[in-house]
């Protein structure tokens, strides 16, 4: 029964029998027969096979909902038993974007591994919206999110702040006109851009500058759209990419201006100059998010405490908005 439920859940997650069969390392005919046996027991189909991608029927939605409840109970039981061992066992599943996993998490993960070497860490990389869905489905224990006014059931606590800067290739003509407002990489490394009173620039100054923007669905896409709207500018979009880090590297290669996080500037470069944008939306407060519906393990609590201490974010938790 447990194996059959896993089969059906995998088909649901991939919305395809062929993709699910590949993920399960079995043939598609064998998987189809297994699902058909369950449907025969239930007495009705679980998937609407006329739709592509596959969709659940009403019975299928009920089946998946109960499967998730069972999985959550099993996970909570395992976490509570592991907690009896005072962080001498267990698994902590963390999800982050490529930016978070590459530029924010590494020192915290290393510190956590040193302090709790017997807790197994699992790291998942995906887009922010996918990560929230994974958290809702209990596929991960922790993720990070900077939605400005979250309206969900997750348990959230502010954990770090970054600042959005505009990176502009050094040979672009606009830099000559805005020389007094530009920051070098040394300035960013010394955090001069964070000093009170440092100049910000309107996006109107970059009306003729080609841009590399993120694709819709990214938090930074929404914020950059707001920057342009506030300045009454329609951007010259040269390219759109799905990853913040990709936009940063393309800007360094001279492809166009890009909005980046100040966390990305980790070494000296003369390939780009940086500008503060005159908008409150450039400051992003990231929450560490956990499911508000399930047991919070000692490993999750220890990781949250270590993360917030590392980045100096000892701020009261946010209560979910209802």
Automatic annotation (TrEMBL):
InterPro entries referenced in this protein's UniProt entry, alphabetically: HTH-type_LysR_regulators, LysR_HTH_N, LysR_subst-bd, WH-like_DNA-bd_sf, WH_DNA-bd_sf
Coiled-coil positions: 63-90
UniProt keyword list: Coiled coil, DNA-binding, Transcription, Transcription regulation
Domain HTH lysR-type: 1-57
Pfam families: HTH_1, LysR_substrate
UniProt record similarity statement: Belongs to the LysR transcriptional regulatory family.
Name of protein: LysR family transcriptional regulator
Organism: Faecalicatena fissicatena
């Amino acid at each position: 029964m447990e194996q059959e439920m896993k089969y059906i859940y995998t088909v649901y997650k991939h919305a395809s029998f062929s993709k699910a069969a590949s993920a399960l390392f079995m043939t598609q005919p064998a998987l189809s027969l297994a699902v058909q046996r369950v449907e025969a027991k239930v007495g009705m189909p679980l998937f609407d096979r006329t739709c592509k991608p596959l969709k659940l029927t009403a019975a299928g939605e009920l089946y998946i909902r109960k499967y998730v409840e069972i999985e959550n109970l099993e996970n909570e039981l395992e976490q509570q038993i592991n907690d009896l061992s005072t962080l001498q066992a267990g698994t902590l599943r963390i999800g982050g974007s490529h930016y978070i996993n590459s530029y924010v998490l590494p020192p915290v993960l290393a510190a956590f591994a040193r302090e709790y070497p017997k807790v197994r860490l699992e790291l998942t990389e995906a887009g922010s919206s996918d990560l929230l869905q994974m958290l809702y489905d209990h596929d991960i224990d922790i993720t990070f999110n900077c939605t400005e006014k979250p309206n969900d059931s997750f348990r959230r606590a502010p954990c770090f702040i970054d600042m959005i800067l505009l990176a502009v290739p050094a040979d672009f003509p606009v830099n000559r006109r805005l020389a007094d407002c530009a920051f070098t990489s040394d300035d960013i490394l010394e955090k001069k851009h964070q000093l009170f009173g440092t100049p910000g620039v309107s996006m109107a100054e970059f009306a003729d500058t080609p841009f590399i923007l993120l694709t819709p669905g990214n938090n930074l896409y929404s914020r950059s759209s707001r920057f342009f709207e506030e300045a009454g500018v329609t951007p010259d979009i040269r390219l759109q990419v799905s990853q913040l880090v990709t936009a940063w590297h393309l800007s360094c290669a001279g492809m166009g201006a890009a909005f980046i996080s100040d966390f990305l500037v980790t070494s000296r470069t003369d390939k780009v100059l940086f500008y503060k944008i005159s908008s409150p939306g450039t400051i992003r407060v990231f929450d560490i998010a956990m499911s508000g519906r399930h047991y919070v393990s000692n490993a999750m609590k220890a990781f949250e405490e270590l993360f917030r201490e590392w980045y100096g974010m000892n701020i009261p938790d946010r209560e979910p908005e209802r």
